[in-house]
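Exercise: predict the fold of this chain.
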Amino acid sequence: MAEPLVASLDEAFNKLVQEIQRYGHSKDPALLDSRNVYGRICLEKEAPQSLANANDRKTVFVFGEDAITSVILRKTTYDSLIELGMIPEYIRYKILEQKKSQCYLVLFKLCEESKDTFDVYPATWSGIQKMIEKHYPLAVQDYTRHLDVLKTTNYEEFEKQAGFKFIESKKGLEGGPPLYSYEYYCKLPNLGSCSAWQTRLFLYCELRLFELFTGNGHTISVNAQDDSSDATSGLLEYICPNVSIANLQSLGPTAVIPLQCILPNM
């Protein structure tokens, strides 16, 4: 396995990276300091140059300290992706259809002086709105108008209204439903008065608010969908700008660690 890209003089951060690189997990994560550390697992063909390599991607989801200690340091890459809220169908699509078989764990630590210059919001409906206001201004009117509906309507109901599965739009295949990117959304003739399902599909395709997004700031995995426990019992989830690795290095300790993602037999 290739050596990780590390830019850090932070001893605690380096120890965390070394533990993941050496073992892929830790026998005692409690001994490692992951305070103020955020991360993201990238499924790519080559080492990421940004939190997400897609040039038109403006925002990304990242996880925090609790995911690092309870998931990243304890589980396989595939199981970690599931716990972080990805569905098996999408993981298989990325690896088998898009041929993005290599995984990379990006970790970055925000120093105190960086917290005021880099926006990291809880992945709540409020946090999403802040990102839309900053990065997708032409979608603000539809988002705020439909916000109550977005909060209270089951995801499956939006797909029924659309007449297709949203993941088929995300694939953007010829003959399938159109990819509701920000560019496509802004060209809709009813922009500003779009239906709720159109706005939800835009959020799905552009901001990656996928099937399991709840808007309460926590992830939910496919393993927990039928669990009747507290809906806020998942991992903390955040949204931030999609910036380059070089930018992250200017903010604080940063590492890009190669991982392997082995798909289970299905």
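Check your answer against the key: Residues 124-207 form one domain.
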